[in-house]
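Sanity check

After download, print the first record. It should look like this:
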Amino acid sequence: MNISISNLDQEVTNEQLINLFKQYGEVNTAEVVLDVFTGQSRGFGFVEMSNDEEGQKAINQLNNFEFKNRALSVAVAQPKEEQKGSYAVGNGSQKSYGILRNNGNKKNKGSRRRIY
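Expected structure tokens:
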């Protein structure tokens, strides 16, 4: 069972997550998500437990549990949804608009061509 944990203190480590959850059953993996640029915790993480029943018990016991002076939010992790980006973001499927440039033809000064 994959479990998401949010509202983590910035100082929480993977090892501390393992220790917190292993009292409810076998923990396969635990990961605090780090910011790509700063390397600091983003305040949430994921734990994978081998048994669904033990995972549900951990969720029930640890949701709203105070850990490092923060009330944790613990729930079953939802699968990551495919995100469609907007034109401004530049990801996802989108139409290529290209750049309009003057083609340099002196006869037709106003004519343009599309550069891709």
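If your output differs, re-run the checksum step. Summary of this record's structure: The helical segments are 14-21, 52-62.
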